[in-house]
Amino acid sequence: MAFELKNWYLEKKQGEVILEYNGSITPELISEALHSIENSLNMKNEKNRVRKKVYNVFVESLQNLYHHVDLPPVTAPVEQSSNFGIIILSKDGTFYRISTGNFVKKEKLNYIKDRIDQVNSLSDEEVRMLYRDILNNDEFSDKGGGGLGMLDIVRKTGNKLEYYFYQFDDEYIFFSLDVYIS
Amino acid sequence: MYTLVNRIATSMETIIREGSPKTPFVRLDGEKGMVEIKGRSIPENSVEFYKPIIDWLEKFGDTPSEETNVNIQLEYFNTSSSKCILDIFKRLELIHKKGHPVEINWYYEEDDEDMFEAGEDYQSIINIPFKMIEMEE
Question: How far apart are alpha carbons A64 and B54 in whole angstroms?
């Protein structure tokens, strides 16, 4: 069955949607989105510990998109901007879910998959040790994070990353990532 | 001789940067030997934000004050800031090693295990005494 963005949306919007955005991911958008969730009733009423985790992981997820996304395929039913990404923050039962979606070139699939599988395979203690190793390693990319982003998300949430790759066409994959915070 | 050294030491410019939604309040005071960073640090380009701070510390390292007090009170920070914060500590470590004691006060809110652990991460890498200070909400 062909990939339908509409269906993906429906699935990720289960629960109470706190913020939803699709379009160009820019520093200004990240500021606005953060400001908007800070002012949501859900966040205002949340425990300090959880609230900070949500902000932290939310920003990290958006900045991951900002630094890494590709131009979407011309046939995709979305805005043609060079930094196209989707983010949805919702509260589903006792969890907050941050879902991101973006189009990536097929050849990047294995790289992304390997990175996530590796992070997911680690115990809490191993995540922490690897984080320290990378932090103290001089080989940081000019984007600054040096591969700490995913690791940091897993560390802060204590949950595995859930990902899906949907074939969009011969050239592109839709990459979907869910992070849960409780 | 002493007056000359003093003149150099006191000629360190004090840097104060107000906080913004993505960047922390920063105060670098060479005369008092104070380094303060407070708030949140989540800029997209952390290297650009922290470069003047690292440069200042490098200059300060030539003629540091007798003791340096460092207060880090972050609400949260992104991974791109984490490396820059480590760079700050590495500069301070050089000063500490030269025999000018540096003390780092790492503040965290009482239920914020993430910020506590972040302090532990730095402590495990940097050879300067850290004081972990819990703040009540």
Answer: 25
